[in-house]
Structures are given as C-alpha cells and as structure tokens.
Amino acid sequence: MVMTTHVSATPSSKPSDCLEDLEYDKYLEETLKWTMDDWKEADKATVEGVARAAGLESLANVREEPVRWLWSNRLAQGKLHLLTGDGDLGKSFIAMDLGARLSAGLPWPDGEPVSTTGSVIYLSAEDGAGDTIKPRVRAMGGNLDRFYVQAADTSNLSLDKEVSRLRGMVEATDAVLVVLDPLNAFVGRIDTAIDADVRKVLTPLSKLAEETGAALLSIMHVNKKVDQAPRHRTVGSVAFVNAVRIGFMVLPDPGNSAQRYFVRIKGNITSDGLRTPAFAYELDQATTSVKWGSFLPDFNLETHQPGQAHVQGPASKLQAARDFLRTTLAAGPVSVADIREEATRLGHSEKTLERAQKALKIVSKRQPSQKQLWELPQSGAAGPSPDCVDQGCQPTVKRPGNDEEED
Fold first, then answer.
1. How far is CA 63 from the centre of its chain?
2. Is 312 left (phi over 0), alpha (psi -120 to 50) or beta?
3. Contact criterion met (CB below 8 Å) for 306 and 300
4. DSSP 8-21
5. Are 219 and 91 in contact (CB under 8 A)?
6. Over the stretch 226-281, which tens digit does the pLDDT of each residue have?
7. Which end of the chain has the lower number of beta carbons within 10 A, N or C?
C-alpha cells in the first residue's frame, strides 16, 4: 500500500521567501504524523470489514461468556460429548438415566440440582423404543412427554448428508440433550478410520450444538486392545475423541462383577482440577435403572481401581433417598412396606427415608385392604403409563426387567 502526502510548502533557496529548512522539516514531520494516525484509524475499519467478508472476527469483538453447564464439569450446553466402553457395562442405561433426569428435573447422581430441564432426543439403532427405551425411562422417573425417539415410519438419520435434518429435530423439540446410540450407526457413508472423513461429520455437529445450545452425547464401542490407553481404544479415528470437549468411559470393577465405573477421561473445558473423576454404579435389572454409588475423585485408569472415595455426607444421603423415592413412585402409588424393604436393601436409613418423604411432600393413603401406600403429589408425579392405566395394574417396587443383553 502506497501512501501519498501532499505538502503545500517546498524548500527554497531563498530563506526570505519560504520556511527555513529547520521549520520545513518540522512541518513535514508533523504532517506525516497526522496523516499516519489518520490512516491507521481508517485502515482498522477497512481491515475489520475485509476480515468479516472473509468470515473472520477479531477477539476484541467476541462476547466473552461462561460455559453453560447442565451438570457441572460433566455435561455442557452447546458441546460435543462422548461415552465409550466395552459392551454389557451399561452405556445405554447411563445415557437414558442422564436424559431422564434432564427431562424431569431429577437431581444428578452427586446430588447437584438440575438447573435446566428440557426435551431429550434419543436416537438408538440398537434398542427398541417400546420394549426397552420407554420402560427404562419411565422406571428412571423421566418425563415421557419430553423424551423423544425417532418415529418408526422414518428412515435412519445419515449425518454425512443430513445434519440439517437433526437440526430440525432439535429446533422442533427445543431439546437440551441429543443422544446418538451408537454414533457409528448415524455417520453415513464415510470411512470412520480416516480423520478427515470423521471431521466432515463432527465439525457440522459441533456447529449445530453451539448454535442450538443442545448438548450432544455420542455413544461408541471400543476395540479389544486392552493394553492401549483408554482414550485410544475408541473404535475408528482418534478424531472421535479429539473433537469432543468432554469424554467418558465405563469400566468394570475387577474385584466386583456387579460394580462398574463411570469415568471422565477427557475434560477440555472442565474447571474442577480433577484428571479422572469417577462414579461407581450398578445396574438394577429388576427396576431397569442405574444405582449410583460413591464419587471417586482419583480413579486409576491402568488398574481400574479407585483412589480415596468421597464419603457421602448427610446432604447427599438425603438427596439419594429423594432420588430413590422419585424413581420408585414415578409410575404410581407403591406399598410403604415394599418401599421400606427396598430402601433398606439399598442402604437408605429409615430416618433419612422419612425426611425424604416429607421433603417431596409424598402423599400417604390406605387401600380398602388397609395397605398403606405412598404416592407423589400430582404436581410432581410423572404419572402412570397409559398401558398400566388401561389394564388397571398396580405398580410395585420390583419391576420386570428386560432379558435382552444390553450395552
């Protein structure tokens, strides 16, 4: 860029007819200085305009904002998440549990209240909506009116060409969480081992999440190379792990076949300072739900062994009891005797159970047979399923499980 400066005065051999040389140099210097400052201001506006035309924006014009957490340091609005692990450890169970909590406003496993509730979209290529997903979500206390699955008469989503179709689903339901189970079933005709191909799907997905505010949780399987680092065991390109902001893995407990661990293996945007925090959990096949255990701030990914477990305090014990009652009574009234028996089995004390009952304003009533029942107040009840109402059935604490082998 050439800048031309016009100066009205010129040096002369006659000092009496023009500015002295020294005065002229000073005049020229001042003129050049003024012209440069003026040019800088004009150039700044020009550069910003050209940058915007090229699709760029300076950080000075970007509004700074905090991460919007659905569950602190675990689920964030507008971000990609990954849940991976071997089969039969409960990946689908966990995803449904998280969705049920968001749909109904149930507390998170650590007792943290759900600050944002909303609709959930659960796209599954493996589980049936009627025989698996609905019974589980209902048993978990989810709001069935806010929990969406793909309609039976529609074709499967193909994200290599139909990200806009998924966007339409999110906008139509105002979803706060979208689950793809498993992600590989929806990526379309791409080579999942090639980074560039995977990015062609994940980059538009990331933009969709950011623009709609929905959290996207993808479920994936792992390979059989147990000697690899956990985050490298996800089947396919490393881009599946690298592109997400938060990643989880489910792992077995080598000393307890019933217990598993839900471990955060990646946390680019987390602020808790923990590398691999985890929760212990078990799958309750009788009630088709997840039984959450202790919080483990320091989990060893190599040995699958927890560090020092965080002991539940009185507040978290009360929250766990409230969560148990919400789940147990979600489908309708239940015998108090059955509730107490199940609560004792799960480790809830009678005193804590009574405090939870009062906190939830649970209604106590008697049947003609003098059997005492507990029932959620109408404003907080998810309500019995239409199938149960039609058949006049009475829900109990123990619900039939699904014999199908699950992730």
1. 23
2. beta
3. yes
4. S----S-GGGS--H
5. yes
6. 767 777 788 888 889 999 999 999 999 988 889 999 999 999 999 888 888 999 99
7. N
Nearest partner of 178 among 215, 152, 132, 210, judged by Cα: 215
Pair of tokens at residue 23: 């005065």
CATH number of this structure's domain 69-311: 3.40.50.300
Give the global pTM. Answer: 0.66
> How do residues 144-167 score in pLDDT, each as one tens digit?
999 999 998 888 899 999 999 999
What is the DSSP secondary structure assignment for residue 236, as one 8-state letter?
A: S
Distance CA 300, CA 145 (A): 40
Say which CATH architecture domain 318-391 belongs to.
Orthogonal Bundle (1.10)
Instruction: Name the packing angle between helices 163-173 and 195-212 (round to 10°).
Output: 20
Residue 298 tokens read as 């320091």
Q: Where, residue-wise, is CATH 3.40.50.300 in the chain?
A: 69-311
Strands in 363-366's sheet, in edge-to-edge order, are 334-335, 372-375, 363-366
Beta bridge partners of 246: 81, 267
Token pair belonging to 244: 């997400």
Other Cβ atoms within 10 Å of 298 Cβ, number: 14
Contact 87, 221 (CB under 8 A): yes
Rounded CA Rg of the chain: 30
Amino acid (one-letter) located at 177: L
Rounded to the nearest angstrom, the gap between the alpha carbon of residue 350 and the centroid of all alpha carbons in its chain is: 34
Residue 23, C-beta contacts closer than 8 angstroms, at least 6 positions apart: none
Q: Does an H or E element contain 91, and which? A: helix 91-104
Distance CA 299, CA 306 (A): 4
Tokens of 377: 């107040």
